[in-house]
Amino acid sequence: MTPLNPASGASLGHDGISRRRLLGTAGAAGATGLVLGAAGGAAAYAVAEESPTALATVGSTGIAFHDRPHQAGITEPQQAHGHLVAFDLAPGAGRKEAAALMRRWSALAADLMAGRPAGDGDTGVALDAGPSSLTVTFGFGRSFFDRTSLVAQRPPGLDPLPAFSSDHLDAGRSDGDLWVQIGANDALVAFHALRAIQKAGGAAARVRWQMNGFNRSPGATAQPMTARNLMGQVDGTGNPKPSEPDFEQRLFVPSGSDHPWLDGGSYAVVRRIRMLLDDWEKLPLHQQERVIGRRKSDGAPLTGGTETTELALDETGPDGKLVVPENAHARISAPEQNGGAAMLRRPFSFHDGFAPDGTPDAGLLFICWQADPLRGFVPVQRKLDRGDALSAFIRHEASGLFAVPAAPKKGEYVGQRLLET
């Protein structure tokens, strides 16, 4: 990540007063400087994994909205707080209204991500806070193209996902015309963005569903490390890395596709996965590790090494049995077991309270990114659905699939190449 250049027009003082005037003065934030991921999401992802973040610097980091290869919120490190919200276009709203909405939302997101207020009607929720690594990411669902009379522009990657035996899907909390992902390292900054986006929907769009999530805060560990989920497992070890030669190819739609408006974009699969924590927590540690195929303490394979050591899938123990069981989650989901299929997982945990009997409504807001969900998410989920030991401890309760265009250039809005064709 590189320091923000005030001359670029993206500094906090441009086009409005900063939410955090202290950014230009002495102190932890001023000493650190505003940080920008404009050099490209992959670079930001790689650097952020290597450099620890002190809690005092959390508010000072900002991420560019415009003039980057891909929308923010895909390759950046996971933020501590997140909101996912889907909208349906209002009855009677079509392509014209959708274009005006995306123009309005894009301008708003650019201001919020730069730490500026949300216009004259700003609620003041995030006053005194810096950008806090805020990202606002926009995507289009399959139904969006029907509503805007753009069916001919709908890519095949938005074909409906197949049904899986572990699905217990709530239609009211699935799909949607439009999808917005909001992430930040400060809870008030994240909520401020959510409220501003919802208000700016105006008469053009209404909320279909909304979900809240969280992750470990930056600086909470002695050194950067892969996050844990609510089962206590290190989650995300097998993610594609920017250093891999096919990283971009796996995640982003290549230029020259049949739908140029999506060139450089990606697909997000969103799943609300409830974890049956009462059942999981009854398992002894060694059984939990066999279900996953990795040590709980550090995420290393049961075959030894560190978190990043490749699984020795053929290794057997003294009893002649595979050390990583045939139905272990790590084995079944490994790219080498799925013809190289891979996706970038960037989830949030959630907890929405307790049932009368004390059962927690908690789990994972699973978000994965890929250039083609039919070659990324679908084949992996099919194999997991057929024999994953973890399936007995989770329930897929909501699902969505969205096409996410590339980032707009300065002065443009997300989806402009689609809506103005």
TrEMBL record:
Q: Which residues form the Dyp-type peroxidase C-terminal domain?
A: 226-407
Taking the first listed entry, what is the main subcellular location of this protein, grouped into a coarse class? other
GO BP of this protein: iron import into cell
Please list where the region (Disordered) is annotated.
295-318
The source's domain of life comes to Bacteria
Subcellular compartments: Cell envelope
An example of a Gene Ontology cellular component annotation for this protein is: cytosol
Record note on cofactor: Binds 1 heme b (iron(II)-protoporphyrin IX) group non-covalently per subunit.
Q: Any idea where the Dyp-type peroxidase N-terminal domain is?
A: 71-215
Cofactor names: heme b
The protein's matches in PANTHER family, at most eight in alphabetical order, are given as: DEFERROCHELATASE, DEFERROCHELATASE/PEROXIDASE
What is the name of the protein in this document? Deferrochelatase
Q: Which organism is it from?
A: Streptomyces pristinaespiralis (strain ATCC 25486 / DSM 40338 / CBS 914.69 / JCM 4507 / KCC S-0507 / NBRC 13074 / NRRL 2958 / 5647)
